[in-house]
Write a structure and sequence with these properties.
Helix content: over 70%
Number of strands: 0
Oligomer: single chain
Order of helices and strands: HHHHHHHHH
Largest sheet: none
Radius of gyration: 17 Å
């Protein structure tokens, strides 16, 4: 029974991700909330934390409920730290950085990206490092720090190349071209 509920939570989560990627934040929130409810019912701390981080992420992308996003991030981080899952601690730091970026708290944004990269490098999580460098580059670009943004994009490209992810390499290069920093 718990396995079935876990699979249902995973399906809701995946639907939430799909809706996030299409920009339908309301639908994404609905499915991620359903996944969170199931995680809470079955007592899966890891799933709860993952859903809380995901909800915070969509609030940040949508630019709404930023106080709630921070509350969810605090709860998620607490769980990830208690479970000592550094990959998710590093990912949560990336989400905090995005929150601070959205609020215009530039110094904190940079601080949390640096914390994220440091943690992810400690465990050699190249995929997550690449994602963080990409997010970091976008935020630096928004701050007007074009040269530094280019450096972060190039670091992301280097990571994705090592992973053999040429699709992401192309996407970043195309983005850099559109932004005039290639």
């Amino acid at each position: 029974m718990v396995g079935d509920k876990n699979e249902l939570a995973r399906a809701y989560y995946n639907l939430g991700v799909l809706y996030t990627k299409t920009g339908n934040f309301d639908a994404s929130e609905e499915y991620r909330r359903k996944a969170l409810e199931i995680a809470e019912k079955i007592g899966s701390l890891l799933s709860m934390a993952y859903q809380l981080n995901g909800l915070a992420y969509i609030y940040i992308l949508a630019g709404r409920n930023l106080r709630m996003a921070e509350e969810y991030l605090n709860r998620a981080m607490n769980i990830f730290e208690r479970l000592n899952i550094k990959r998710y601690v590093g990912g949560c730091m990336d989400t905090y950085a995005l929150l601070f970026h959205r609020r215009g708290e530039w110094d904190k944004c940079v601080e949390y990206f640096e914390k994220s990269v440091k943690i992810l490098k400690e465990i050699n999580d190249l995929d997550s490092i690449a994602d963080t460098y990409y997010d970091y580059g976008r935020c630096l670009l928004d701050m007007g720090k074009r040269k530094k943004a280019r450096e972060k994009f190039m670091e992301a490209i280097e990571c994705y190349r090592k992973l053999g992810n040429e699709r992401k390499v192309r996407e970043i290069k195309e983005f850099m071209e559109r932004m005039g920093i290639s």
